[in-house]
Structure formats: structure tokens, C-alpha cells
Amino acid sequence: MVTEKISKYTGEEFIKEMENKYGSSDEAEKLFERTKDMRILVDIRNWKYFKNHLTERIKITESHFES
Asked: Digits of tens for pLDDT over the chain (67 positions)?
């Protein structure tokens, strides 16, 4: 079974969500260096982009696979 979670944010809302999740972009980068988790890298890249595009919207889809 596949379930999907769809989240929609403005750039500003996305940045606040990332701050809640990681604390700061520096902390996210340190965590990525330790874990090499590609989801963190995607968050970091989006974070950097949306710092300069606060009113743009982002739609994030997460898929979860269950057997």
C-alpha cells in the first residue's frame, strides 16, 4: 500500500518549518554531513532558494510504502 502526504507552503512558511525541524540551516548542513541523508540535502537546497523567494509556493509530496 502507498500513502501520500501533500504539504503546501509559501517560502516563508517553509523556512519556519525547516527552522522548527533543524534549528538552523547550519545545523541541517552538519546533520547532512553526518548522515548523508538525501532528504536533508533537498531541504537545505529548498531552504536556500526560498530565503530569497518568500512569497513563492512549494508543494511537497511524501510517499510511504507499506507491505
From this structure: 889 999 999 999 999 999 999 999 999 999 999 999 999 999 999 999 999 999 999 898 889 888 7
Measured distance CA(1)–CA(18) in Å, rounded: 28
Helix (H) or strand (E) holding 14: helix 11-22
- Three cell numbers, residue 65: 510504502
Q: Quote the pTM value.
A: 0.80
Which DSSP state fits 24? S
What's the 3-state SS for 27-64? Answer: HHHHHHHHHCCHHHHHHHHHHHHHHCCCCCEEEEEEEE
